[in-house]
Amino acid sequence: MQQEWQAASKTARASDTAGYLSTKTIAALCSPSGGAICILRISGSEAFSISEKLTASQREEWQERKAQRLWVVGRDQKRIDDAVMLPYFGPRSFTGEDSVEFFLHGSPMVAQKVLEETFSLGARMALPGEFSFRAVKNGKLTLSQAEAIKELVQAENDFALELSLEKLSGTQHKLVEGLKNELIQLVTLGEVGIDFSDQDIDVVSLPALKQRLAGVIKILLNLQGSFDRGKKISDGIPVSIFGLPNAGKSSFFNALLGEDRSIVSDIAGTTRDVVRERLNLKGARGYVSFKISDTAGLRKSVDQIENIGIERSLKAAGESDFILIVLDGLKPELESVRKFLAQVEVDQKNIVWIASKSDLADAAQRSKLENELGLKPLWVSSVTTDGVHQAALVIAEAGERALDKKPNEVLLTRMEHFQAVELALQSLMTARDSEDLVLFASCLRHALNDLGPLIGETLPDDVLGKIFSDFCIGK
Fold first, then answer.
1. pTM above the 0.70 mark?
2. Which of 140, 160, 177 is the last residue of a domain?
């Protein structure tokens, strides 16, 4: 059955080569099978007629958004599933087209058979993100809202969830729409100024237009600066575990992960390369994502391979927002650690000091280390796990502070949006520095075009298709 279903979906897709520009009725599961319920979505001009055939016309009169319980049947009229059908009339649907959703029992066999029947009746398998693509084309969603749906599906922490929901509510679109309208007004006033250059009209003079432009540049500079936080919210904050050999770095790394990810032994130099893992830690406000690197122990070595690992450790630390310095609670060798730390540019506020082997250190050893360090480190034991939870909380709360944002503040999360803002800023800086009204207006038109990936309206269909091609099928 799996091979038959795949063949049917391949045939259905191959029969229509227009891709995202196709107007053919499409179908896909918009929730996975295998649970209690899965949902089949059908959208397009034939959605109702296909649904009638799937249910052998058992339905009552079509009533918008009124659920009906009925049998889904095959071409041989044999029953496939006892389902609930919910119709949506275009344009008052997600895609803006006639659409039907079938709530099926979650059996993968049921889903495959119903999909196979749907394709045989004239629908084709939806491309990734094609439902959202049609919603944008039909004016039901802005491009930024459609992208927010993808980000909402992929959100792995509370900050990413909050950011995607704000974007879905239209916060980013409202800001970008305001920028677009202001630039259009400035271009229009610039054209007026060119036409009436022989008259002294202050509102369309170059100094007056430049003064208005300053506000646009300020907003775009804020957007440009937001990208770093936006990416760290979605991808994770880079963190390195740093220290001497056998200090307990890999043991602490494994304790944070809750699994044996790094090899641990008493042999110095066991970890020779950077081992990276993504990890969610819960702070006071929710989960924060981190990209944590377990690095090679820092020491002078004659081993060429080990030295390469140490160089990579220093590089990883330099590229990290936070460094977790793990000291051996019994033999901290603090001066050696500080010599290596001096090779890394890092703000002292972004260092978390951790002392390992708390289960073995007595009060005198603890007091000595704390006096030498000048502060109280986080004492942990990777054997008993004492202190690991507290250390995780401290790391999470440091991450929360780094990602803190104002209510409704727009943060860029996509590289193409960041690049669009950078290009637009280059055009606007040229306009700001120009002494010619014609050049000023021309640069503003370039900036509007540069902002296309954010605005969405000026993007050609093939670029839109590329944007949606990495969405989930069924979304």
1. yes
2. 140
